[in-house]
Amino acid sequence: MNEAELRALFDEIDKDGDGRINIVELAEGFKAEGAHGHLSEEVKKAMTADANHDGVLDFDEFRTLLK
C-alpha cells in the first residue's frame, strides 16, 4: 500500500475528520473491512500502535500499524 492509499484509508476511517482515529472509529473500520470474530481483541491489539499513549492513532501511528 502506497502513501496515498494509506492516507485515503486513514481519512475513510477518521469519520469525524479530526486527524486522529479513536477506538470507536477503528472498530467501525475493522467492521467495514469485514473483520469478524474477536473484534475487541483486534482493536486492542491495533491500539498498541498508539506510541504516545494518547488513546488515538494519528497518521504516523496508523502507518506504522499497517506496515
Automatic annotation (TrEMBL):
Any GO molecular function: calcium ion binding
Domain EF-hand: 1-36, 50-67
InterPro entries: EF-hand-dom_pair (IPR011992), EF_Hand_1_Ca_BS (IPR018247), EF_hand_dom (IPR002048)
Record protein name field: EF-hand domain-containing protein
